[in-house]
Design goal:
The protein has 139 residues and is of the alpha+beta class. It contains 4 helices and 5 strands, in the order ααααβββββ. Strands 1, 2, 3, 4 and 5 form a 5-stranded antiparallel β-sheet that branches. The longest helix is centred in the N-terminal third of the chain and has 24 residues. The chain is globular.
Amino acid sequence: MTYETGHPGASTGALARSMLCSPAFDVMPMKSVFLALLLLLSAGHVLAAETPELPPSWTAIGVTVGMPYAQAKALLRKAGWVAEAPDNDGDPSFAAHPEVDCGQGWDAICSAGFSRKNEAYGLVLTPTDDGNLRVQGVF
């Protein structure tokens, strides 16, 4: 089968190749758009996965992700939450906060457990460069 392309005897394959190779059908902008959309969706997914939901009873008293742990601890204790002792032996990771337990290694996290009546949660904490802790999430 042949089509009128200005070249006698041009085939369908030749027509497709000529369209794909023509400057009017540049694939690079489409690749760039696809890559940008892929990165945007991936970043949104990671951000959503890393943004933890705090218990409603904690947000109601003002506990938020990113706040200093000392402030969150004070709010929780004032609302009747009790800090749980960690399951480790030895000296506490933070003298001012003996309920905090920190793992070892490059990707280790710190945590502190709190309970009240029939509820119990653990705070994920991040050490800061100045030796303090910030609330990172909940488990």
